[in-house]
Amino acid sequence: MTDNQKAGLNSQKTKKRNLSCLRKMRMLLILIFVFMGVVNCAKAQVVDSGTCGVNLTWVLTIDSVLTISGSGAMYNYEVINSPWYPHRTKIKTIDLGSEITTIGDWAFASLNNLKSAEISNSVITIGEGAFAGCGLMSIEIPNSVKTIKSAFETFSCKNLLSINVDTNNPNYSSNNGILYNKLQNSLLCCPKGKTGILVIPNTVITIGMYAFRANNKLTSIEISNSVNSIGYGAFWYCEGLTSVIIGNSVNSIGLAAFYECNNLNLIISKASIPPTFDMESSFYEVPATNIVVPCNTSLDYQNSTWGNIFTNFIEDCTDIKEIVQNNQITIYPTPTNNNFFIDYKDFDYIKLYDISGKEVLNQSIYEKNEINISHLPQGIYNIQIFSNEKLVGSSKIVKQ
Questions:
Q1: How many C-beta neighbours within 10 Å does residue 66 have?
Q2: 383 touches 320 (CB < 8 A)
Q3: Domain that holds residue 332
Q4: pLDDT in tens, 114-136
Q5: Contact in structure between 233 and 254 (CB atoms under 8 Å)
Q6: What letters, b where the CB count within 10 A reaches 16 and e where it falls short, cover 305-316?
Q7: Does residue 32 fall inside a structural domain?
Q8: Contact (CB, 8 A) for 46 and 59
Q9: Which among 201, 242, 190, 199 has a CA at the least distance from the CA of 219?
């Protein structure tokens, strides 16, 4: 290859390198312009903004994110006067800055499409009604939070399933998504999304004011024997509640505790001394047709405030497991929701009678047989057990 050819080849290579560099520079410039355009576009996506504290600002963007920035405490608001309230249906996510110390009263109330709100570990106080009526299904409480004002109001969200507290929080705790004080001897707030049957743990001594208010999805509550007081309005307007078991240590039932629980048909009280309550409000509009009380206490209940509003007292002289000793029969559990079991020896069938004496079930039984009574209404049922067409034992079962 001649020198001229070599020079030409090198010139072509240089041109290619220069062209490649130009292309790369052009691509880089395009990317820079695109990025600047995205930034400018994002800036243009602001829906609204303003201040929400002495050192706090807020911005709502078109992607449904409400961002609170700055430091210190938020302002307190009334239910419908937060600055972002006019946009309440648009907000789906709340992004709280890492230096915010207080979430103001009613700050995020009625954000019914809210899906996510992360409370930063700088927050010390959560104001009254801060998340009332919002769309959250769960919420996490960090260890920095020392005060939750009126928890029952603050977390009054109809779809809320769980309130989860950091285990290192000094003042609050949670169990099964329910909010308690640190020692879990005071139940503060049960989320409204809880459903079905709920057994209150035996660590609890007091059920707080409005703790279950307007939970329409719970059907049965068992209050443990550790509880001694039921707070003001604790089960106010729990429309879905059909039965409640009151533990044997309960001595007082607060004003409006079961106010307008208008489907509560069965109350089982294990307390030998009738708990005190306000005759005008504690069981207002409660239709309970059966009040089950401990053995030999029906007269005491009739002569107390209970007798002023209820009439049908039924004594339950059974234990959780009832033994019909002579015939080696074990019947459990009682009370029951749908099924009970019979352990027996050499028996053929049983009959069940309601409190009016009407036969409601006639069924053959086998060893450790399960008896389904889900189709029967709540109440007390007498059980008769037969062998070779002869009555060999009897007992009773409480259906709640």
A1: 25
A2: no
A3: 322-399
A4: 999 999 999 999 999 999 999 99
A5: yes
A6: bbbeebeebbbb
A7: no
A8: yes
A9: 242
